């Protein structure tokens, strides 16, 4: 079963490269078509959680390691971008904050879900990573989208425990840890500032994005100081 997939007018064969209707296509198929599928599809608690974001400003690294407090902060923030082809009326990426990455669907206060996340991170020794599938080397219109092959390699490294064995450096603005190496991924793209032609322009844009995070987080007045301080710290 497919959704939004264009069929060839003559052969009726699906053309998955055709984005004339939308870039957001889907397909469903029996789970036993997947060689390593787990049947029945039951598993325990995850040891790794991935937050996906699409940063249209080209500021965030392709992957970052989060502490529990940082995970709760970025979960509450729900930062990403609305992308053309995935939402009606969107022709260029628009930065947005959607609590818990799904604010319209939350029946309770977002802090309730953030606290649940924190409790489960502690209980099951979970490591959380923030993965940016957006832009690198500059904002939309200047930089380029992250390569899918690089994103896959980073997520595989996170799930396989490889990222527990690499060296990290702390980002001075956003506070999270950025790996210095990831197998199969060009080292340069791991440091977003190094991908910009003008590093000074990156610094200005990073401060602006950090300020947007802080402005958005004002509404979460009921969180602890530890969580509030786990977010970006722009210069004043």
From TrEMBL:
Classification via SUPFAM superfamilies: PEP carboxykinase-like
Cellular component annotations (GO), alphabetically ordered: cytosol
InterPro entries for the chain: PEP_carboxykinase_ATP (IPR001272), PEP_carboxykinase_C (IPR013035)
Leading EC class: lyase
EC number per UniProt: 4.1.1.49
Any GO BP: gluconeogenesis
Gene3D superfamilies: 3.90.228.20, Phosphoenolpyruvate Carboxykinase, domain 2
GO MF: ATP binding; kinase activity; phosphoenolpyruvate carboxykinase (ATP) activity
UniProt superkingdom: Bacteria
Keywords: Kinase, Lyase, Pyruvate, Transferase
Keyword Lyase among record annotations: yes
Name this polypeptide is given: Fragment of phosphoenolpyruvate carboxykinase (ATP) (Part 2/2)
Upper classification of the organism: Bacteria, Bacillati, Bacillota, Clostridia, Eubacteriales
């Amino acid at each position: 079963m497919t959704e939004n997939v264009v069929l060839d007018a003559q052969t009726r064969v699906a053309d998955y490269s055709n984005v004339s209707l939308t870039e957001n296509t889907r397909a469903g198929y029996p789970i036993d078509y997947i060689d390593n599928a787990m049947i029945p599809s039951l598993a325990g608690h995850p040891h790794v959680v991935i937050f996906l974001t699409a940063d249209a400003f080209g500021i965030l690294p392709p992957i970052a390691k989060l502490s529990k407090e940082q995970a709760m902060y970025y979960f509450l923030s729900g930062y990403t971008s609305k992308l053309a082809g995935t939402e009606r009326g969107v022709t260029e990426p628009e930065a947005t904050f959607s609590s818990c990455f799904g604010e319209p669907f939350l029946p309770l206060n977002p802090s309730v879900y953030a606290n649940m996340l924190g409790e489960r991170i502690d209980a099951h020794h979970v490591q959380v990573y923030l993965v940016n599938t957006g832009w690198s080397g500059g904002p939309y219109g200047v930089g380029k989208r992250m390569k899918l092959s690089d994103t896959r390699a980073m997520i595989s490294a996170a799930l396989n425990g490889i990222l527990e064995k690499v060296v990290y450096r702390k980002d001075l603005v956003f506070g999270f840890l950025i790996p210095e190496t990831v197998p199969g991924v060009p080292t340069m793209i791991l440091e977003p500032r190094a991908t910009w032609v003008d590093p000074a322009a990156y610094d200005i844009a990073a401060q602006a994005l950090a300020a947007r995070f802080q402005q958005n987080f004002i509404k979460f007045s009921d969180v602890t100081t530890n969580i509030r301080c786990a977010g970006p710290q722009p210069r004043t």
